[in-house]
Write a structure and sequence with these properties.
mainly alpha, Serine Threonine Protein Phosphatase 5, Tetratricopeptide repeat, 12 helices, 70% helix, repeat, TPR repeat, TPR_rpt, TPR-like_helical_dom_sf, Ycf3/AcsC/BcsC/TPR_MFPF
Length: 247
């Protein structure tokens, strides 16, 4: 598997001592086992009906029929007012429709029912970032780290935010942790974090580290123009014998 290359890379001690992706921000989607939480008006029958509506809404959401998805998911929440996964999917649908206010409202309602819902915190952070509310996004990612210390997404989000404001050393610190936790989970999302980390090293003029990380990221992001430009320049600087910045 591709991630095994990174395990070897990590074992060599190269990970640390020695908006960049150019892709649309991707929501965290609840898993197939929805949390059917009884609301004030809930009953076993209404929960079963809500599950059917939720499944149909999720299918339409996946197919890009956002209006149809919203219709089914709203019905699901009406049947079960505590159905947080349906609320989370409503947030995703509204965000993809460009209605950030409605998306924020549904994530907020989800968190009122389930304050430990890290899916809602992560997706709400995407809205805050789109609105330029980086402080609010930072607080949400910190909350995810507190609730789920082994979840790499909180650290990855922190790394993205600090890279966005050009605090590359701080970004690298969080991405180091994200990479390790992605590796622990055997997740190929590790390549996204490796790409960002390589870009951090490029900006920090740590040419050797930049080349190592960016070359690894090519396995998934090889045609990304930002990666190719940073990798080419890092190779040129390294080949010219230009010293890397000292930490």
């Amino acid at each position: 598997m591709k991630t095994r290359v990174l395990v070897v890379f990590l074992s060599l001690g190269l990970l640390w001592g020695t908006g960049v992706l150019g892709a649309q921000l991707v929501e965290t989607v609840p898993g197939p086992d929805a949390k059917l939480i009884l609301g004030p008006q809930g009953s076993p029958t209404s929960q079963e009906e809500a599950r059917v509506l939720y499944n149909e809404g999720s299918r339409l959401l996946h197919e890009g029929d956002y209006d149809g998805a919203v219709e089914q998911l709203l019905l699901a929440v009406q049947m079960d007012p505590g159905f947080t996964d349906a609320m989370d999917h409503l947030g995703i649908a509204y965000r993809r429709m460009g209605n950030l206010e409605a998306a924020e409202e549904w994530y907020g309602r989800s968190l009122e029912v389930l304050p430990s819902n890290t899916v809602a915190y992560l997706n709400l952070s995407l809205i805050y970032r789109a609105q330029g509310r980086l402080g609010d996004a930072h607080a949400n990612y910190q909350k995810v780290i507190e609730l789920e210390p082994d979840n790499p997404e909180g650290y990855y989000g922190m790394g993205e935010i600090f890279q966005q404001v050009e605090e590359y050393e701080t970004s690298a610190y969080f991405l180091q942790t994200a990479i390790q936790k992605y590796l622990d989970a055997d997740s190929e999302h590790v390549y996204d974090a490796v790409f960002l980390q390589g870009f951090n090293f490029y900006k920090l003029q740590r040419w050797e580290d930049a080349v190592r990380f960016l070359e690894l990221a090519q396995a998934v992001h090889g045609d990304n123009p930002t990666l190719l430009q940073a990798l080419e320049e890092s190779r040129e600087r390294l080949g010219a014998g230009e010293p890397s910045e000292v930490e």
